[in-house]
Amino acid sequence: MSNIIKSTFAFGLVAAAAVLTSTAGAEIHSKSQELVVMEARDLPEQAQTPGNSFFLHSDNTGSTYLYVEQQRGARLSVFDVTNPAHIKLVVSTPLATEGAFDFVRPLGGQEELVYFRDSQKEAVLDLRKAQRPVFRVISTVTDLGQAEPLGENGLLVTSQVHKYVPAIARDYQVIDTAASDPTQLVTVKDVKHRVTNDETGTTFLLGSNGLTVVRRLSVENNYKVSQMQTEGN
Fold it and tell me: What is the pLDDT of residues 165-174, one digit of tens each?
């Protein structure tokens, strides 16, 4: 998954201070011109639907995708977040699954472990075609959270059932500290999950209003320069 760090717990980015009012439908820029906040209304329409879980995955072509569980497991939306300035919907597809589910952890480089909350069953999300992922429900009750790989096509698992631990919803505040007086840019309500792409410095927050994206322009620019240099060699 390249240099992506995943996190499924919520915590405050920084403490709140003064409030900056923004225009509906417009990105929020910090005075320092370092931070850009894109709320759900600035993203594709499907980003406005709340979800229970999400994760990032990078394929072998250099593209990065955000997979979001929505409508209590009835829908999976996939966003192309390779360029944080131009986030695109790849697919939003209905699922014939067993209710709300959580993405637990990667299984190798091409699969993601999925846990269904109500049935306590597990599944594997096949990512070999990153833009068209496929669910495979596991018929036995296992605990793949500690699964050990057996080559590329096998897993060694225990029979212990995975224990679901609900995430605690918290509000996040994004603060611009470069100004003489620290300025609150936005408050994101009821965030249960957060994930960051270290390559571009982009943080994704999944809250009650859907998806919020916090961009760091200096990191984005450095990554673009690095990519151009790599392609030139």
Answer: 778 999 999 9
